[in-house]
Amino acid sequence: MSLPSQSVHIVFIPLLAQGHMIPLVDMARIFASGGAVATIYTTPVNARRFRTTVDRCGELGMPIQLVEIPFPCEEVGLPIGYENLDILPSPELLAKFYNAMGKLQEPIEKHLREQTTAPSCIISDKYIFWSSETAQRFGVPRFVFHATCCFSVLSAHNVKHSKCSDLITSDMEPFEVPGMPKGFKITKAQLPGTTVRQQDFEVFRGKIQEAEMAAQGVVLNSFAELEHGCIEAYQKAIGKRVWCVGPVSLCNKDESDMFQRGKEASSDAEKCMAWLDSMKPQSVIYACLGSLCRLAPSQLMELGKGLVASQQPFVWVIKRGEGDSELENWLMEERFEERVKERGTVIRGWAPQVAILSHRAIGGFLTHCGWNSALEGVCSGLPMITWPLFSEQFANEALLVDILKIGVRVGTKVPMRWGEETKVGILVREDEIARAIDALVSEDEEGEERRKRAAELGEKARQATQEGGSSHSDVSRVLQYIMAGPTQEAV
Ligand code: UDP
């Protein structure tokens, strides 16, 4: 498509992972409907997942383009088509994957040079550290996108800079982190950075930090009312602007946008939506643990048994390739779906998560606390059962449970490494899952108060994105910053 030449032109470069691409594509749509021109760079396999969404925006008159740059799999020794973290069969291939991502810099810069509309700014994932150099070459600001909340970014920053964990001898002892909202505690074992083996990524992490220091600002998918002062604190800590422009998922207003977001929905999805129509309002628990993890079949069986044991209606999302034949055999032997058909349904593959969470029959969300999922739960005003797996998910859990008081823990205390989920076997037992669900749906005072707080927060999320709301205003501030050029007052 040809882009208007006089506008602010924002270039989006997401990390090739669902939890990073989905929010950046939404963000591009938000800026495009706010008057900017948006270009999103990705690779062919990922473009196929987002093409329909972006084309629909184009039809609505938004100046937004999705540009495909071939992913150099062969050049780095990756099997062809391994273009998204959810396709990588093992973390052993991560170094090659990031190497291939680095090789996108040159063709992206070439493509940018050929455009009639010069870039005005780059918003890129924190992992795309080389885009800092690209921004300098084009003489434009770069804003870093963290695919999580400010609360968890600040907690990691404060742990590092205060060295508060140095004196803690046990990995399992919860400790307070200076400068964080009261009530927040974490253990050494739960700190982010344990997702992949440290030593492999020291150099990479250094580059990410260096590029973040050189950036002009930070853009997050969150909203001020959720962050309990963390935005101001992080802004002060890094001496840069921090803008919250979310929840970005709320830009998906019509059904087709909600239904097809991030990937084509599984063929089970339509049936699930029809089944939800037949269920009582706020009665169903939606259980989905994100796009990346692949739990051990034994752990997935515990989840299935826990859902059954709780007696609560449920939707259970099982990713393709998760548990594979061992889980499928168990489901068959147990006649699982047949036994639960009155009150439970399974989606195999990609669930239309935002559409499901927005359904009036959903009353709770069993989540791994990936930030997008957590925030989508907040948007739907849902209380949550929290089951963090790795990365910053434990900090996100603390925000949901201890600060916002809208969650109930299943009680897992130790993270697993991504790609090594099957090695740890069972971390959460059937009875712990059932107990957490029962606590969440309980009609006692605690349960009622939790539901009330969750509903209020959902309302605040909506208000934040409306005219005059905090996130709506931050979108305008980002655009003003870009238009004013580099002469910005310090934070
Ligand atoms: N998602 C979805 N359907 C699925 C699984 C995930 O739509 O079956 C979406 C979900 O709505 C969220 C994203 O994928 O936007 C996952 O991001 P998150 O940060 O929650 O977790 P991750 O997948 O990165 O662990």
TrEMBL record:
<dbReference type="GO" id="GO:0008194">
    <property type="term" value="F:UDP-glycosyltransferase activity"/>
</dbReference>
<feature type="compositionally biased region" description="Polar residues">
    <location>
        <begin position="463"/>
        <end position="473"/>
    </location>
</feature>
<dbReference type="GO" id="GO:0004142">
    <property type="term" value="F:diacylglycerol cholinephosphotransferase activity"/>
</dbReference>
<feature type="domain" description="Glycosyltransferase N-terminal">
    <location>
        <begin position="7"/>
        <end position="248"/>
    </location>
</feature>
<dbReference type="Pfam" id="PF26168">
    <property type="entry name" value="Glyco_transf_N"/>
</dbReference>
<dbReference type="InterPro" id="IPR002213">
    <property type="entry name" value="UDP_glucos_trans"/>
</dbReference>
<keyword id="KW-0328">Glycosyltransferase</keyword>
<dbReference type="InterPro" id="IPR058980">
    <property type="entry name" value="Glyco_transf_N"/>
</dbReference>
<feature type="compositionally biased region" description="Basic and acidic residues">
    <location>
        <begin position="448"/>
        <end position="462"/>
    </location>
</feature>
<keyword id="KW-0808">Transferase</keyword>
<dbReference type="GO" id="GO:0046527">
    <property type="term" value="F:glucosyltransferase activity"/>
</dbReference>
<comment type="similarity">
    <text>Belongs to the UDP-glycosyltransferase family.</text>
</comment>
<dbReference type="Pfam" id="PF00201">
    <property type="entry name" value="UDPGT"/>
</dbReference>
<feature type="region of interest" description="Disordered">
    <location>
        <begin position="445"/>
        <end position="476"/>
    </location>
</feature>
<dbReference type="InterPro" id="IPR035595">
    <property type="entry name" value="UDP_glycos_trans_CS"/>
</dbReference>
<protein>
    <recommendedName>
        <fullName>Glycosyltransferase</fullName>
        <ecNumber>2.4.1.-</ecNumber>
    </recommendedName>
</protein>
